[in-house]
Amino acid sequence: MTALEFTYHIGKVSKSLKPFAMKLTRDYEEANDLLQDTLLKAFTNRDKYTEGTNLKAWLYTIMKNTFITNYQRMVRKNTFIDTSDNLHFINSVESSTDNMAISTFAMNDINKAVGLLDDAYKTPFMMYFRGFKYHEIAEKLDIPIGTVKNRIHIARKELKDRLYMYAYSN
Q: C-alpha 42: how far from its chain's center?
């Protein structure tokens, strides 16, 4: 396969790599960097690609391996080792504490968003959240099961819209 043909095939497949990069990095700029690194490695190593095999799978593998390598490099770079006799890992997860402030803010926002729901949607949603089955909610509220499903769906959609800022948080 000539370099021109390879470039053409890569161009056709590269659009499908962007969502995968976003899934891995969860950041637009990092996803663009990962995509660029992947394509650079593919072009650099095009002689290792076997013609007739799945180009898309080959690119996905390169992207996944590049992401893992970059992640491991970042972890190593951010880990300081104390050279004393005890050899403590200064920034290891085991030695850090979380003050739960973020989760407190999140729970306050969630409770506020649920409180803003219309009672027609909030009641079935909260019953479902507490473990009731659709048919149990329908019987208790004396409404059709389809209405229960619809109201829970609408409640979820409203909550998703109100809590959009937590969509990609860890």
A: 25
pLDDT digits (tens, 9 = 90+) for 85-98: 555 555 555 555 66
Q: Is 66 helix (H, G, I), strand (E, B) or coil?
A: helix
Structure tokens at 90: 């200064």
CATH class of 101-166: mainly alpha
Asked if residue 13 lies in contact with residue 56, where contact means CB atoms within 8 angstroms, the answer is: yes
Q: Look up the pTM and report it.
A: 0.46
The yes/no answer on whether domain 3-77 falls in CATH 2.30.110.10 is: no
Record the tokens describing residue 58, joined without a space. 């080959």
Q: Which two tokens stand for residue 34?
A: 């990962």
Residue keyed to tokens 């926002």: 109
116 Rama class: left (phi>0) / alpha (psi -120 to 50) / beta: alpha
